[in-house]
Each structure stands twice: as structure tokens, then as C-alpha cells.
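no rush on this but wanted to send it before i forget. theres a chain ive been looking at and ive put its sequence and its fold in C-alpha cell form underneath. please have a look and point out which stretches look like helix strand or loop to you. thanks a lot i owe you, the record is right below:
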Amino acid sequence: MIFPLDGAVRHALTIDPTVWIFDERKRNVEALDSELESDQDAYYAKMGKAWDEGLTQGARIDHNKPMSRADKDAALRDSFAMPFAPFLQNAEPLTTATHVSFYGETTLTLSLAEARTVYLQFSKDGKVLDDGPVYVLYDNQCIRSVDHIVVRSNG
């Protein structure tokens, strides 16, 4: 199930959460509260490690790295969510943009800064959400059945 991210953005996006299971940015929902470093810090740490390994061991090209057995097992039993911030960044909110509204069972409207801390849950117990496409996880809140995200502006 796909859903739009549109409104006061330079690039409207159509998001397909069914492919996120293969994305390295996904997080286990149970571990979200225990994560201390931001996703950007984790990304830079990972890239820095890869850079160091490339310098010491030489480049290794492995574009089609298969999922490990542990990753496959986790995908079939765990619940996962994706950080919303990279999608918001790719949509490039206009300079007049101030808020983001998530439409689902209820509507949640957050400032742009708060919206960057949101996670979009796309699986539960290894299965696609029955009442999805995604849940919005924010500050101990769960907004179910979110099927449209709109970036709002005051102007």
C-alpha cells in the first residue's frame, strides 16, 4: 500500500513501505526507546568505519549482499519502523513550510522539527500491518492507519 507525502514541498513523494524490510535504515520498534544516538550520527559512524576499512583492507564491491540468516529470521518475527526524517529531507519542504500533518485514524500535526523525530512503523510481528500502510510513532503515541502526510505552511 502506497501513500503520498505532499503539500508545501518541492518534490511530492509516493512512499511504498512494502520495500522497507530490505532498507538498512529500519529500526526494531522495541529498541527505539533505547537508541541514544541519532540516525544521522549512526550513518556517519557507519560510513566512517567503511572508509577506514577501505583504506586498510582495500575496496570490496558487494552490491548484492544477501540478507543473513539472522536478518531473515528477524524480518519474519520482529516489528520494524523507518525514520521519517530522510523522506522529509528528500521532499525538500519549502521555506514557508512550518508543520507536518499525518492523516490516519486521527490527525497528528507537528512542527517540522518535531516531525523529524517521527518513526513510521511498517510491520508488526514479521507481517505487514493489517490496518496500515503505516503507524506514526511519536512521543509514546501511535497513530494507526496513516495513509497521507501533508507538509503545511502558514502562507
